[in-house]
Amino acid sequence: MNGIKRYLNKFILILGIGFMIYGLYRGEVQTVFQKAINICLECIGIG
Amino acid sequence: MVKIRDNMRLLIQSIVSIFTNGYIEGFVNGTIYRGKLKQLCVPGLNCYSCPGALGSCPIGSLQAVIGDRQYKFTFYITGFLMVVGSVLGRFVCGWLCPFGLVQDLLHKIPFVKKIRNVKFHNYLRYLKYIILLIFVIILPLFVVDIIGQGDPTFCKYICPAGTLEGGVPLVLSNDAFKDAIGFLYAWKMSILIITIILSIIIYRPFCKYICPLGAIYSVFNGISMYQYRVNYSKCIECHKCTKVCKMNIEPFKTPNHLECIRCGDCKKVCPTNAITSGFKSVDTQDKKYDLSKI
Prior knowledge:
The structure holds two protein chains of two kinds.
Chain A: H1 2-26, H2 28-37, H3 41-44
Chain B: H1 2-6, H2 8-20, H3 24-29, H4 58-66, H5 75-88, H6 91-95, H7 98-107, H8 121-124, H9 127-142, H10 153-157, H11 160-173, H12 175-180, H13 183-201, H14 205-209, H15 212-220, E1 227-230, H16 240-244, H17 265-269, E2 275-278
Antiparallel strand pairs in B: 1-2
């Protein structure tokens, strides 16, 4: 179990970096960016 | 020197909060930052509609992408949360979250009776996982409009951080928003006021019971690279760490409990320095207690 835990965080880290790169490739960043640069009316309690 | 060391966490929380909300022009003009940095997420809960925000909120971004008719799953934000979680776990909550800092400061306000042990705490702490599942994932994903777009329901109906960091300053500095406020704003302001009052009485009620970001990072606490360790050859089981822990855990038994925000109070109070933290491998930890019972 300890051996699994020892490598699990590294595995998740690498998988996470892979996910981020694939997300960038899919263009998700543009969706995040568009949402973030316009005032989110829902977030501030208006929309 | 001792004072700086004792207040190191407060200092780092303040620096991070100021640094991630450093767009002063936004506060002055009632606008928000629209530069490229907004493509990146900050690790803590920090509304991207805060006039000063230089980065994006991971929970807001998560809902924005899965609520988008084009995606329905976000590799970018999931990956980001995996990276931060696998390295730090809930260290983010204790040291890097601006809304955590707000609650910490509110709890310093004197009050006639501070509540340390909330009734049903052990059940209520699971509420944040339910909120994560329903308001952050299920509702934005499945309750969609005619073009297939979902609402960021956690931000819209619950998040007091958005009201405090975005709603209040923007409404105060922008007449158009002032004219547009209605029931939803009153509802969110009520949640914010309740959160503020509760934060004075209870330590970090939002982090303990509501925060979906804390819920995500908590899952990584047991396996993250940054770990708390107890040297049981030094531990005298005096329970001082348990008494000082404001997150209601027993650090000498479960140093990497789901609720631990890695504030370090237990390390400071330990008379034998049995509790340490760092990036050493997990299996160096002495497992006298069954750590799976967290």
